[in-house]
Design goal:
By secondary structure, the protein is mainly alpha-helical. The chain is 60% helix and 0% strand.
Length: 144
């Protein structure tokens, strides 16, 4: 049952009418897709494969050693670092959202001003520098 979709899980949950069934349902492993980590997912994306590490480091603006620690899985990146990597790789909103989830960070929230700006930047395929300029324009903190 590890590969259940949210819809399948919701259908199962809708049919539960006893405490025993509820307890069994709660024992179902959490679904993260086929990837065990952010690094594994990120490296698997076609847009990331198109770039070499040096280009991705340059476009994301991350320190070289930090980048390699993240890609090896020895360091879990914070939200802004994940966003920098996704923007640097030119990922879309769907891939960025999944990357944020797998890294244990909050996804972009459509009611937060900064997250709205970040979403628009992603949709416009902006790079890190252009995104930071947009954030600055609207008096929001730049990506760290």
């Amino acid at each position: 049952m590890d590969k259940s979709t949210t819809k399948q899980l919701a259908d199962i949950l809708a049919k539960i009418d006893s405490m025993k069934e509820m307890e069994q349902y709660m024992e179902i492993p959490k679904v993260k897709g086929n990837f065990g980590s952010f690094a594994e997912y990120f490296r698997s994306l076609p847009d990331v494969h198109k770039m070499d590490s040096a280009e991705l480091i340059r476009k994301s603006g991350l320190e070289r050693s930090y980048f390699y620690q993240v890609m090896k899985g020895t360091r879990n990146p914070g939200r802004d670092k994940v966003l920098r990597l996704c923007l640097g790789a030119g990922l879309g909103l769907k891939e960025t959202t999944r990357a944020l989830e797998l890294s244990g960070n909050a996804v972009l929230y459509p009611r937060k001003r900064r997250d709205i700006i970040l979403t628009v930047a992603i949709n416009q395929e902006a790079g890190v520098d252009d995104t930071n300029l947009l954030l600055f324009k609207y008096n929001e903190d730049p990506l760290e």
